[in-house]
Amino acid sequence: MTPPPGRSSGLCPPSSPYPPPLPPPCRSRRRLLPPPPPPRRSLRRRATMSGRNPPRGRERKRGKSGNNHHAASVEDTVLMTPVPRFPDKTDDTPEAKICLSRVYKAEKVELSDDRLSAGSTKGYRMVRATRGVQEGAWYFEIKVVRLGETGHTRLGWTTEKGDLQAPVGYDGNSFGYRDIDGTKIHKALREKYGEEGYTEGDVIGFYINIPDGASYAPKPPHLIWYKGQRYVYSVDGKDDPPKVVPGSEISFFKNGVCQGVAFTDLFGGRYYPAASMYTLPNQPNCEVRFNFGPDFEYFPQDFGCRQIPCPMSEVPYHGFDGKVEGPAENGFSEKTS
């Protein structure tokens, strides 16, 4: 059958040396999607400065294609450690006298109206004084007012980093003296110290000497405001190692009698009087009372070769000397360089 004029049968005549033409390709309705975005960098302990203007004088490295998604460098990565309690938060004033802090204490610790006595039930909890020292020789007393049948105490010194939800001597930031056997404790390690422990009615003296301690004290923290939280900011991601103060020591006295040198080679920093108490539930509070001087009940008559200390009552007010960088509208200082 012969096709009508103008139409082709679609078949090549037997004499044609060429194959039949291919049908036109079908147009796909699927759209080509853009490539997925690059994976986000982890923010577990390091926070990047993406989304913010990079520091002046520093630019991000770019890849061969000109994109900087996968070209993170050391310059745009910093270490930001959140700290729940900051040195700019205090209840001390220049007009006030040294006493126990209502800010730097565990919630379970109860203070007297004059903020010189402290008590606690259940687990060990800590309270520290409003003022600390970083240089010189200093002294204060604590009288054990009540232990009861189940009460115990750990008394001594703590730095700003001491854990308030733990007893004195729990970590490397505090140094304690226990009522049980009179042992000393640091980093949760107990060591034999003194001849015997102490009990209700005993007065414990606390001596610290930090010669030229200001030269070994750590630098004030660099604080910033980031996403609603204050952080300690470090560009290189490393903390300055602590420095040992030569000739530094902590000694304890019981009713005016020295029990020996307890700790030496202290790290530079600010040290605060501290106490932690323990009592089983449904028992009266274990209670201690601080005496920062100058009138002591058992001031030692002989310090041997030690430097004669000053009473903690003479420690001057130490305000917060740093700044928290952040949005100016929130009351913080903007970083401009």
Automatic annotation (TrEMBL):
Ranges where the record places region Disordered = 1-92
InterPro entries attached here?
Answer: ASH2, B30.2/SPRY, B30.2/SPRY_sf, ConA-like_dom_sf, SPRY_dom
- Specify the B30.2/SPRY domain's residue ranges: 78-297
Known Gene3D superfamilies for this protein?
Answer: 2.60.120.920
Pro residues bias: start-end ranges? 14-26
* GO CC entries: Set1C/COMPASS complex
The entry's localization annotation reads: Nucleus
**Which of UniProt's keywords are assigned here?**
Nucleus
Write the lineage as a comma-separated list: Eukaryota, Viridiplantae, Streptophyta, Embryophyta, Tracheophyta
What is this protein identified as? (wild Malaysian banana) hypothetical protein
Q: Cite the SUPFAM superfamilies for this sequence.
A: Concanavalin A-like lectins/glucanases
